Amino acid sequence: MLQELTIDNLAIIKHLSLEFADRMTVLTGETGAGKSIIIDAVGLLAGGRGSQEFIRRGEEKLRLQGQFTLTTDPGLTALLDSLGIDHQDGTLIIMREIHRNGRNTIRANGQLINTTMLRQIGAYLVDIQGQNEHQQLLQPEKHLGMLDQFAHKEVQPLLARYQELYHSYTDLKAAVNKKQANEQQWAQRLDMLRYQVNEIGSAQLKAGEEEQLTSERDRLEHFQQINNALQQAVATFNEGEAPVLDRVATVMEAINGIAAFDDEYDSLSKALNDAYYALQDVANEAGQQLDLLEFDDQRLAEIDQRLTLIGDLEHKYGDTVEKVLAYYQKIKKELDSMEAAADSSSDLEERLSTAEDQLLKTGEELSQVRQRAAHDLAKRVHQQLAELYMAKADFEVHFAKRSSTTRFTPTGIDDVEFYIQTNPGESMGPLAKIASGGELSRVMLALKTIFAANEGVTSIIFDEVDTGVSGRVAQAIADKIRLIAAHSQVLCITHLPQVAAVAQHHFLIKKSVHDDRTTTTVTSLKPAQRVDELARMLSGEKVTKLTKEHAKELLQMAHPRQ
Fold first, then answer.
1. Beta strand pairing status for 126-129 and 459-463?
2. How, if at all, do strands 61-69 and 91-99 pair?
3. Residue 297, pLDDT above cutoff 90
């Protein structure tokens, strides 16, 4: 449920902070006052596409923040956990900023996320019903998803199994097609992969090996220079008539003797002591390295040969040993796949045939479940339409057979489209071609009423879904939206007083001009103010005593216990 919404610099809204409650909240006001901007803000917090055009003129960024209470939906819980978003207190705060320079910042409970992640989260939080949803009804390709949404519990397990089989089937089919397309090309590719895998595999490359060998080669190639330098160091420090260490030791003893007379002499003494012991360490290390030093002609030849091999492989397969090894893993996987397929062409085709049979069987089971659900959905939609004064309308879910060449799709073997007959004597036809705007509104609302109880979305927004209706139909739509609000929080933009009256909460949206700038304000209406607003919606600019009485009656009928 949406608890709080804060808007800064969105379109004509400078700053707005709203608190929402459960059940139904209605937003009314004159056309252009900014009602839809508030819905746009919620849409952006649910992952809608952002744009610099949303930013209020003269401002550098817009900022939105929404606080939601979460449901216990396991899908939402798993999603938030996978994104590392803390939600232990059952609250989710989403903040989104859009800057003129194109930067888009989104945080969920302080965790930075991207738009794709926000869209995934938003699907659990908000369901915005408006003209786009009418458009979905006009798109037959969306109808199967709506049917599956209705029969989610029955469809989802079968659909998951079908999709697993479908991926196996398409992989096998791709392998068969690839093999059959060009047997010679297949064989040539197989031979090349075998050669490359053998060449790289037999080299037994190791990450970091080239650097280690290069370092060892440099030491062997410069053996004489290294040997001379170490011998000179050892001799200078420890040998001869006046070894350096002995001479430094003599000086150190003299300075140590005067260290007690002055702090500066003491510092000089300590520095000389440190220098002496450091030189002693160098002398010892040089002696040890000299003892270990040896030249191996054969080892140098082995290293040169190995580095030449590594260089040849890098020239063919990658700039570094790591890239060569990565390429090896890639072609090894492809070779294993091709060899498994090449074991027997008939075996591959037999596996494809088996996979196709399993896929078809599961697809038919899925289709049967959908057809039973479609029959149930049609009955329930007809009941809802009757309550929306379309009792003589007939609704059905039409299933079409696919051709054998395109029998399987990722969603099954069904082509589904909603059909409707709006008046007796007319033919049943596609909903997209027959229904008027007002009829589409009622069909959409009928479906939403059916889905609302088990959708699990915390907030449903109706953005002028009652366009094109009036009179008793308007009252029926109001009753439907109120019914939906019994299961979910509903935010509704409307121009119909019948719809506005059934809401538990009422916001009035107004715009005004100050200093040549347009600003939107929102007022939470008290009962007496609601009467005035309903009267305005009933009669327009001229509000009479009779109109107010009618408005008061609407409220009393909608809330008889108040």
1. parallel
2. antiparallel
3. no
Kindly report, residue by residue over 67-103, the tens digit of the pLDDT: 998 877 777 888 899 999 998 888 999 999 999 988 8
Residues pairing with 28 in the sheet: 508
Q: Which helix (H) or strand (E) holds 234?
A: helix 223-238
Record the tokens describing residue 194, joined without a space: 């075998």
* pLDDT-based confidence at residue 131 (cuts at 50, 70, 90): very low
Answer for the pair 147, 373: CB distance below 8 angstroms, yes or no. Answer: yes
Q: Other CB atoms closer than 10 Å to residue 237's CB: what's the count? A: 20
Identify whether the C-beta of residue 366 lies closer than 8 Å to the C-beta of residue 144: no
Among the residue ranges 12-21, 457-466, 478-487, 497-506, the one predicted with the least confidence is 457-466
Distance of alpha carbon 69 from alpha carbon 93, whole angstroms: 9
Tell which residue, 57, 39, 4, 25, has the closest CA to residue 519.
57
Single-letter code of the amino acid located at 408: F
Sign of the torsion formed by the C-alpha atoms of 340, 343, 349 and 351 = negative
Query: Per residue, what are the HEC states of 465-495?
Result: CCCCCCHHHHHHHHHHHHHHHCCCEEEEECC
Show Cβ contacts of residue 314 under 8 Å, excluding neighbours closer than 6 positions. 320, 321, 323, 324
d(CA 90, CA 266): 68
Give the model's pLDDT for residue 248: 85
Task: Dig out the tokens for 555 from the structure.
Answer: 């409220």
CB neighbours of 143 closer than 8 A, spacing ≥ 6?
Answer: 397, 416, 417, 418
Give SS3 for 520.
strand
Phi, psi at 311, each rounded to 5°: -60, -40
User: 459-463 and 489-493 as β-strands: parallel, antiparallel, unpaired?
Assistant: parallel
Output the 3-class SS for 150-206: HCHHHHHHHHHHHHHHHHHHHHHHHHHHHHHHCHHHHHHHHHHHHHHHHHHHHHCCC
Q: What is the pLDDT of residue 460?
A: 79
Question: In this predicted model, what pLDDT tens digit does every residue of 299-337 receive, in sequence order?
Answer: 888 888 899 899 999 999 988 999 999 999 999 988 888
Residue 414 sits at the vertex; the CA angle it makes with 410 and 415, to the nearest 5 degrees, is 105
pLDDT band at 341, cuts 50/70/90?
low
Task: Answer whether 0.85 is exceeded by the pTM.
Answer: no
| Beta-strand pair 2-10/459-463 | unpaired
Measured in Å, how far apart are the chain's first and last C-alpha atoms?
24
Mean pLDDT (the chain) is 85
Q: Which amino acid is at 378?
A: A
Which amino acid makes up residue 214? T
CB-neighbour burial class of residue 349 (10 A; exposed 0-12, middle 13-18, buried 19+) = middle
Report the alpha-carbon distance of residue 200 to residue 192 in Å, rounded: 12
Q: Model confidence at 6, in pLDDT bands (50, 70, 90)?
A: very high
Burial class (CB in 10 A: 0-12, 13-18, 19+), 554: buried
Give the CB-side neighbour count of residue 298, counting CA atoms within 13 A: 0
For range 54-67, the mean pLDDT: 92
